[in-house]
């Protein structure tokens, strides 16, 4: 049974049909690349899965059960995490503080409780070790490279033991070395049995790390293929419209 299944999902903003009748599934431990030109509907689709938007039509199922969400916190409660393109990190805080932002650990009782920094540093270090990242819990985010920042954002998703991680352009505007680091982090998530939906414009990244590629054009799904059965040339044709469907 797929961990996530979308059936004829649509999202309309008045007369604008941002997403129209899209169906696909995600398996546990699978990386799916979601590709398309700007305005193709990728981000809108992911925001519906993340609980930011409610579908206008269609249904979503998680582990076979109907999935209805009203806000992003509902998605997190169901084991769906998202890494936004801007990462949503606080530069003036440490890596551990960012990992636990909004979910801080406390010790003590009621109004007399204080933040348990030692526990947060300890758990953050364990997560970075699991991800095989060199990021250290006490490092300030403002002093980090792009790859290290991605590691912090990905580590934050591991707190809730997620079933699905949605990643929006994680390798945009970072160096080649940092891209390799981020792709390795995605592999670590897959190795832990987590399903990953990867939005990307970078063809080499998708064909390096993804098991399957889904192509969208003008709000519709025009392809859903195994990476082994496709090619960058075919995906480019599907994105531009030179190839209608595959």
From TrEMBL:
Species, as recorded: Dongia mobilis
SMART domains for the chain: AAA (SM00382)
Assigned keywords, A-Z: ATP-binding, Nucleotide-binding
Keyword tRNA processing: no
Domain ABC transporter: start-end pairs: 4-243
Organism superkingdom: Bacteria
Protein name: Monosaccharide ABC transporter ATP-binding protein (CUT2 family)
GO molecular function terms attached to this record: ATP binding; ATP hydrolysis activity
């Amino acid at each position: 049974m797929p961990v996530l299944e979308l059936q004829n999902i649509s999202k309309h903003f008045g007369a604008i049909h941002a997403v129209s009748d899209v169906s696909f599934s995600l398996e546990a431990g699978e990386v799916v690349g979601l590709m398309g030109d700007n305005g193709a509907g990728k981000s809108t689709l992911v925001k519906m899965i993340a609980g930011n938007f409610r579908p206008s039509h269609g249904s979503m199922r998680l582990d076979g059960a109907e999935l209805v969400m009203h806000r992003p916190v509902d998605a997190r409660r169901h084991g769906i995490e998202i890494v936004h393109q801007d990462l949503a990190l606080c530069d003036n805080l440490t890596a551990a503080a960012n990992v636990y932002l909004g979910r801080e650990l406390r010790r003590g009782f009621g109004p007399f409780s204080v933040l348990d920094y030692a526990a947060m540093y300890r758990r953050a270090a364990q997560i970075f070790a699991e991800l095989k990242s060199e990021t250290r819990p006490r490092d300030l985010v403002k002093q980090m490279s792009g790859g290290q920042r991605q590691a912090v954002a990905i580590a934050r998703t591991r707190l809730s033991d997620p079933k699905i991680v949605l990643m929006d352009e994680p390798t945009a505007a970072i160096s080649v070395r940092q891209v390799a680091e981020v792709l390795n982090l995605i592999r670590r998530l897959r190795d832990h049995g987590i399903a990953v939906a990867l939005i990307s414009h970078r063809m080499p990244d998708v064909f390096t790390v993804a098991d399957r590629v889904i192509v969208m054009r003008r709000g519709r799904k025009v392809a859903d293929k195994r990476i082994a059965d496709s090619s960058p040339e075919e995906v480019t044709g599907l994105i531009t419209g030179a190839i209608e469907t595959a």
